[in-house]
Amino acid sequence: MTIDKGLINQTLFRIAENAIRCYGSNPGAYPPGINGPHNDKVTNVRVVSHYFLIFYHLYFISGEKKYKSWCMDAIDHILRYVDKTNHFFHNRETRGKDPNNGLIGQVWCLEPFIVGRELISNKQLEKVKKVIRNHDFSDELSLFKYPVPGSNKPSQRLNYTLNQQIWFAMIVSKFNDVFLSNIFSSELVSFNNNILNYININKQGLLNNLIQIRGFRNYNLSMKNDLKKIFKSVSRLISDQQKFLRSSYSLFSLVGIVNSNSLKEKFDLKFGIDSVLKKHTNNKLLFSDKNVYSWGYNVSGIELARLENAINGNLSMETNRLLLKHLEPTPSFRIPDDVTYKARLYELIYLVANYQNIY
How far apart are the C-alpha atoms of 356 and 78, rounded to whole Å? Predict the structure, then answer.
């Protein structure tokens, strides 16, 4: 089936106009959400970053200046959350959790600068480049780190979540393509050459989301302890949550892989994206009303459509049905965080927009 672009654009107009009616034209006044089922205390920089992509798309197809004006204000607002730290986009204020929200928090905030590149000044661009460069790279493991605040030069922490590593590498590659930069150029080559070594596909055909480092004795003590903490926290999850997490984040990782030209080719040769896609299409866990990591957080119907459209150029009837569930004005599925969910519907733009030739 072909994608109903008219219906999707109508949905995006409805989301934007409802946001303006509820929150006004000042991006700073938009509510922050709670980071889905994680119930975090967060800044509103993620929600504003997502809404930027909706408003920019509507400006592009309609030419209405109110959408462009909102986007210009949003860029200033997003960059204020770099000024607060001088090292990264400040996403989260929950005690005991990193304010970056790992690598993925930075991805959310970088996306607007790539898609809306024509609105970015040189001064703003330099600030964004600095944020990217503030992330270190482990040559030993070929994985990215993120800065942890606490001093003038923050320490760095490895991120062991597969989807976050894939999306960060993908977004930096896109940034380099758009702005003709070479940030992490050699590191990205190393990442793409080695990341498949960390990808494991289980019996259900899903990608395991935790990067497992083999050969603990080869790494320093702090890294061992870091890994042990991660494994311990994962083991505390109840079995149903583990299934849901694996289902939703496996799909999220695949979307990142397919959107990375160099990684897509490597993955297809090793695992076969078509065969993995079929597993996800038939995976009932992804679309269970009990799965708070799916409908109301990872928008799995949209992501499955993005994946299938990228691979096959169209949608199956079942995928189209799942996509349409997200376009209902009053969704019947469970949404733990309505604010973040509505903003997350920005992913619809990648089903209808070919103007950037990015995703």
Answer: 21
